[in-house]
From TrEMBL:
Required co-factors: pyridoxal 5'-phosphate
Protein name: Aminotransferase class V-fold PLP-dependent enzyme
Domain Aminotransferase class V: 53-423
Organism: Gordonia jinghuaiqii
Keywords: Aminotransferase, Pyridoxal phosphate, Transferase
Superkingdom of the organism of origin: Bacteria
Catalysed reactions, as listed in the record: (sulfur carrier)-H + L-cysteine = (sulfur carrier)-SH + L-alanine
Family, per entry: Belongs to the class-V pyridoxal-phosphate-dependent aminotransferase family. Csd subfamily.
Amino acid sequence: MTAVLSAPVSSSARVTPADTAASRGRFIPALAPVVGADVQVPLTDGRTVAYANLDYAASAPALSAVAAEVAAALGQYASVHRGAGHLSQLTTRRYEAARDTVRSFVRGRPDDTVVFTRNTTDAINLAASITPADVVVLDIEHHANLLPWCTPKDGRRRARVVTACDTIEDTLAALEAELASAPASLLAVTAASNVTGEVLPISRLASIAHRHGARILVDAAQLVAHRALSMVSHGIDYLAFSGHKAYAPFGAGVLIGRSDWFDAADPYLAGGGATLDVDVSGTRQTGTTWHTGAARHEAGSPNVLGAVSIAEACTALADLGPEAIGLHELRLCERLDAGLAAIDGVRPLRIFADSADRVGIAGFVVDGLAPRVVAEYLSDEHGIGVRDGKFCAHPLLKRLGHPGGAVRASFGAGTTSDDVDRLLDALTALAADAPTTRPELDEG
Ligand SMILES: Cc1ncc(COP(=O)(O)O)c(C=O)c1O
């Protein structure tokens, strides 16, 4: 890899934007064009500046290639599955082909069921509705991979929440001990933390689950657009993700996995499209024969453009290649980490002392300043969009010692080193100002 960094500046020395700009290394361009890259936003001083979008982990902007394909599909859009008209047939083919594209992008098994959902949250709620017995989860999860397991609708399943340890190694041992202690149907884990970006060792987690007779569900919301994933070679039984975090707009998500649980469970939604035959005459109010496969759980008119945009995003991401994506993020991460380390009072968040890989997410706090104050300052005075709060991971934020929340910068294919440098310059100025000229910014 080409070195793009200078040595980190000592954290004891106060640095200025002018000092750091020269020392950060050469310009890193965007990896791929995204829609909205040239959006101008107003500042409180009346100027407008180009928006620095450092909030990809919340929702990534559409890749331009995805937007173009979706716009083309929109021109030929009609109802799916029911119409004999040409556009209906075309749209149905597109919708069904989207399943195959997703399956091959995540290297699923040929007979895996691919259900289009509203988002990851919906996908994991669907997974919860088909899972027969106990589920083991970590306490570091996004609520989407915690609450569906902790609130079973019929009491047939328990969520067994394992406290993550300070290292990945110890956490794997704790999970293994829990799975060995009593049978469980499923281990449900995140692939990458939405708070710190740290990547978990999915193949090892899958081996642990399988060794104890459990299946594994991977919440890939923060990984699928950033690393190569192979359900077959990682041994993943179920995978959930959202289109809007993977450069695909239009609000759809995916749950893909082994078909037997899908087919054995009650339909996720009751209604048209999920049925083979319905008879409500006389006493036969329950005389409904349901489809098997994806249709069983997709009642109602589906989000065709959502599915098409996910498929287009998969194609675009495959074209970019996981190596190029990973390298782009690594360079930006290194630049951001070195810059943050040089700013007094900025403290990066980390869960595991031994994590070796991280997607383009940096969670941090600024001493003495509430996360919302920092985020508003970055937006109002510098046109930089970051996320602040508890990131739907309240147990994790409490464990990290920040129950009031933190700030998160996140990036991806459309990010340049200028975006990162602007954040570092703004934080440098904020940290320099905070003790004297900003007494009102005390932590709330
Ligand atoms: C790791 C993780 N899982 C699940 C979700 C929920 O995704 P969605 O809001 O698209 O349902 C998120 C969203 O931030 C996430 O980061």
